């Protein structure tokens, strides 16, 4: 879920063409959860093969990644490593939410209430280790780079972006900013419409860019204070301060030069060590052991994996793969397949 600071940071609408020819780091866990949540049947049930294996994440990876490649975007998929121990409580809370949602989803289906079933179905999915391994296998066959983070995927991408390995971070969450990603891109792997949480309303969404330096300038704070702000409103590593929303949090960090002063002003003594959380974001763990290499898709392996193992339509899969190859050919001599995938 990340930290709820979206209403404060400047977001600029862009087109996918803005990222054409750019290498971007994909927060893989984040986008896989998107696919599991959004790619579902009318009753909220995820897509499955004939053996009952969930395939929503594979569907999203194939078709939405194909869309990026068609537009000239070069994605590097970064996967989370071992989470910090402080995140365990958040993970436990998410599991409980999903377990409760799964039960309500099943009850709604039995009652014939499709609207409720769809609502709770989208909240009930858990990304399993098997799904992660399946995603990595498919990405390998597609010839796309996979990077294993030391800890948080967003921290790894932030390091790669600052190091010039990728142009920016693709994620719906805002944690990448706390980790120091210079550019964050949202709504890149989602469809053109998004459901408003808790309502049966869909709104149009467009790709967005967040420039960390610009955002901090407008907020009149530095990155350390952005971390303080996020600690006040809650992160994956701590609960929020009571009765403090983003605007109040911004005012507090703007006028105080230490978090100890903020604690005194709020008159709330947190049970967590704020300095430990600050260090997670400002001195994150990352791996320098990775290689970014784009290769030509192994078409028959993709077909075998998706169609023979998971009942995908062979015509649709081959059509998607042909689009990638065709797009590369359209670029001319400078962007031949060997240049694109080399």
Describe the model.
By secondary structure, the protein is of the alpha/beta class. Helices cover 48% and strands 9% of the residues. It has a 7-stranded mixed β-sheet. A two-stranded antiparallel ribbon has the order 7-8. Helix 7 links the parallel strand 5 (169-170) and strand 6 (183-186). Helix 1 packs across helix 2 (56-70) and helix 13 (299-310) runs antiparallel to helix 14 (314-330). The longest helix has 24 residues, at 88-111. The relative contact order is 0.16. Mean pLDDT is 88; it is low at 332-340.
Brief sketch in words of this structure:
The protein has 15 helices and 9 strands. The chain has helices at residues 28-38, 56-70, 88-111, 114-121, 129-141, 153-162, 175-178, 212-219, 223-233, 246-255, 259-266, 274-282, 299-310, 314-330, 337-341, and strands spanning 12-13, 23-27, 74-79, 146-148, 169-170, 183-186, 193-195, 202-204, 208-211. The chain is globular and about 65 Å long.
| Distance separating the two termini | 35 Å
Compute the number of helices.
15
The fraction of residues assigned to DSSP E strands is: 5-15%
Instruction: Characterize the largest beta sheet: strand count, sense, and whether it forms a barrel.
Output: 7 strands, mixed
Strand order of the largest sheet: 1-9-6-5-2-3-4
> Rg, please?
21 Å
- Given the C-alpha coordinates, what overall shape results? globular
Structural class: alpha/beta
DSSP helix fraction = 40-55%
Q: Which ranges are low-confidence, i.e. pLDDT below 50, for 5 or more consecutive residues?
A: 332-340
Q: Let me know the number of strands.
A: 9
Write the H/E string, N to C.
EEHHEHHHEHEHEEEEHHHHHHHH
The average pLDDT score comes to: 88
């Amino acid at each position: 879920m990340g930290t709820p600071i979206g209403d404060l940071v400047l977001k600029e609408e862009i087109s996918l063409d803005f990222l054409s020819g750019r290498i971007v780091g994909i927060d893989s866990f984040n986008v896989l959860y998107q696919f599991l949540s959004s790619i579902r049947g009318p009753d909220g049930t995820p897509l499955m093969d004939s053996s009952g294996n969930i395939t929503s994440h594979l569907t999203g990876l194939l078709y939405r990644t194909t869309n990026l490649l068609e537009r000239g975007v070069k994605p590097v998929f970064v996967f989370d490593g071992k989470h910090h121990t402080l995140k365990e409580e958040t993970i436990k809370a998410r599991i409980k939410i999903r377990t409760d949602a799964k039960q309500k989803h099943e009850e709604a289906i039995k009652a014939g209430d499709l609207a409720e079933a769809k609502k709770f179905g989208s909240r009930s999915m858990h990304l399993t280790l098997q799904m992660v391994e399946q995603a990595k296998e498919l990405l390998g066959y597609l010839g796309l780079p996979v990077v294993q983070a030391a800890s948080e995927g967003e921290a790894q991408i932030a390091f790669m972006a600052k190091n010039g390995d990728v142009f920016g971070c693709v994620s719906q969450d805002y944690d990448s900013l706390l980790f120091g990603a210079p550019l964050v891109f949202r709504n890149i792997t989602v469809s053109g419409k998004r459901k408003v949480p808790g309502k049966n309303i869909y709104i149009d969404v467009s790709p967005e860019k967040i420039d960390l330096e610009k955002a901090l300038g407008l907020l009149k704070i530095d990155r350390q204070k952005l971390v303080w702000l996020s600690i006040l409103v809650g992160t994956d590593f701590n609960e929020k301060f009571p009765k403090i929303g983003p605007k109040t949090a911004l005012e507090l960090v703007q006028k105080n030069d230490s978090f100890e002063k903020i604690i005194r002003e709020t008159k709330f003594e947190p049970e967590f060590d704020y300095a430990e959380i600050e260090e997670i974001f400002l001195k994150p763990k990352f791996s320098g052991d990775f290689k970014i290499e784009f290769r030509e898709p192994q078409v028959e392996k993709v077909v075998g994996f998706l169609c023979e193992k998971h009942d995908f339509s062979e015509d649709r899969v081959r059509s998607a793969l042909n689009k990638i190859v065709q797009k590369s050919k359209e670029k001319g001599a400078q962007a031949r397949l060997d240049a694109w995938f080399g």
